[in-house]
Input
Amino acid sequence: MTRNIINRAAALGLATLTGVALAAGDPVAGQQKAQVCASCHGADGISQAPNFPIIAGQYADYIERALKDYRTGERDNAIMKGFATNLSDADIRDLAAWFSTQQGLSAPRITNP
Amino acid sequence: MKTTLLSAVVLALSGLPSAALAAGDAEQGRLRAQTCMGCHGAPGMRNAYPGYRVPKLGGQHTQYLMDALNAYQQRLRSHPTMQAQAADLSDEDIANLAAYFSQLGNRR
Output
């Protein structure tokens, strides 16, 4: 319970910092919906198989876009289409909120000007 | 001992993907990545339309990055800008870029 509150507070803080629209998903709900994702992407989004992307720490709006593109078939992947077809927009927002707030990927910085 | 086990797991996993893991040269990748950094090296950079942030690549799996670039090059994955960028890349470039981006970041 305490952890839930902390998670929600952290997500809110992040959403405020990054200027994400208020339609942000619920990371706690996302974690619960993410159980099926875990078999390939890992429970916290760090996949072990090198052909499945790490999604921990990825931008939430990019994850949302990817899932919606899988759902429509715009992004063509038989495995992901199967999962994304069953997701509502709210599910997608929640999943994106969960994985984007996990420790993982980073945006590379330009090191040599 | 733990390292040995880990190595065995990594070895076993690396045998799974069909593409051979010709290890790329991260330093060559860094030099080739100048164009990529215009978007992927600018934290929070947005794709123009539809609007979403350009994905983070730092710490991503080498194999996934290579798969993505190959898919753009073969136009199996849609994104006009990425298809155009990937069109000019050799297999060696792709391996080098993947090596570079995968070793960036502070992934645990």
